Amino acid sequence: xxxxxxxxxxxxxxxxxxxxxxxxxxxxxxxxxxxxxxxxxxxxxxxxxxxxxxxxxxxxxxxxxxxxxxxxxxxxxxxxxxxxxxxxxxxxxxxxxxxxxxxxxxxxxxxxxxxxxxxxxxxxxxxxxxxxxxxxxxxxxxxxxxxxxxxxxxxxxxxxxxxxxxxxxxxxxxxxxxxxxxxxxxxxxxxxxxxxxxxxxxxxxxxxxxxxxxxxxxxxxxxxxxxxxxxxxxx
Length: 235
Description:
Domain OmpR/PhoB-type: 136-235
DNA-binding region: 136-235
Helix content: 25-40%
Keywords: DNA-binding, Phosphoprotein, Transcription, Transcription regulation, Two-component regulatory system
Number of domains: 2
CATH architecture of the largest domain: 3-Layer(aba) Sandwich
Domain Response regulatory: 7-120
InterPro entries: CheY-like_superfamily, OmpR/PhoB-type_DNA-bd, Sig_transdc_resp-reg_C-effctor, Sig_transdc_resp-reg_receiver, WalR-like, WH-like_DNA-bd_sf
Number of strands: 12
């Protein structure tokens, strides 16, 4: 499932929790904006137009329920309430006011991610399990041109540059996600390499080899760039 480009606002007055949730989701391809209170969340919502909001109930000043009520006056963005309160009444009130889901702290980050994907799926035009439309024709990759129909890479003089099936698959994935940051798991999953292990870093080696073929200066890549702490982006 591709989640690239989805913006999520994490609104919580606890810095440690914001950073933990933000880092976890960022590593999985989401664009994260962290805010410490309702006021900052409103400002971020106007600037970034989020696809989903994670909102704490128990915040000083304007609490999460009041923030949700105000947010619902102008937006139908999916909202997941995240709070230390676990009483049924709090869940009922939050859901009746327009929250899409509710999780009590301490939250399991894997469960939170699953709830996020479910909420985004329910949106009109939300994420799906389908792959992007297959690329056709050709596309430039730095010094080279990739022919999707023939699965071949050519240099500036139209000479074929040898590439492996996995290298072609990686270039195709980058083309399908141009301008989007992809982490290692997403690259390996979309390239259909089922032989990888959860902490396999072989993707770095493969991209290093590709850079030697397509970059003007492989030590300072400009075509496939590294996004520190997250992954890679093309374009």
